[in-house]
Design brief:
Arc Repressor Mutant, subunit A, 165 residues, 2 domains, single chain, alpha+beta, Dna Ligase, domain 1, 6 helices
Length: 165
């Protein structure tokens, strides 16, 4: 977790004015990583009750452009924001509940930036999102032995209908 002093320093270093709106948005995203705009707006309004939608959108845009926030958008989801920027981390996303968590790259370097054929592009970023079921959803969706017998599946086989997303 960052402090307001850290955020003030980061804003100044990025050439941005230090405002209550920007500080509150940074603090909110830092406390609630992987939040969408609506969640951020709701949380910011608990502190700055009269802030407009546009002010929050503008702050998110300015902070993302300055590299103080990272914006990413998993398929089928609203854009999400986080304060963890400038490192080589990826995300795990649950198809069932939508939870998103950070996961460090196993190689601790930027191998994702070296495709087999870059087609002349100067690549500076890659997004990797691993999809699956989080531990809570995986546990809930596993049939009990009685359900296995009723569904006609053998032990060890999982029969869980999945929606196509």
């Amino acid at each position: 977790m960052h402090t307001m002093v850290d955020f003030e320093t980061q804003l100044r270093a990025a050439g941005l004015r230090v405002t209550k709106q920007r500080l509150t948005v940074l603090d909110t995203v830092d406390r609630q990583p992987h939040s969408d705009t609506a969640s951020i707006l709701d949380a910011v309004r608990r502190t700055l009750t009269s802030i407009s939608h546009q002010a929050v959108y503008d702050a998110l845009s300015d902070l993302t452009d300055a590299g103080l926030l990272r914006k990413f958008q998993p398929q089928g989801s609203a854009a999400l924001y986080e304060t963890r920027t400038g490192d080589n981390h990826h995300h795990l996303a649950c198809r069932d509940c939508g939870n998103v968590v950070d996961v460090d790259c196993t190689l601790q370097e930027m191998p994702c930036l070296t495709p087999l054929d870059d087609q002349g592009y100067l690549i500076d970023e890659a997004e990797v999102i691993y999809w699956g079921s989080c531990p809570s959803c995986s546990t809930r969706s596993q049939p009990t032995p009685d359900q296995d017998n009723q569904q006609g599946t053998s032990r060890g086989e999982r029969h869980v209908p999945r929606s196509n997303r």
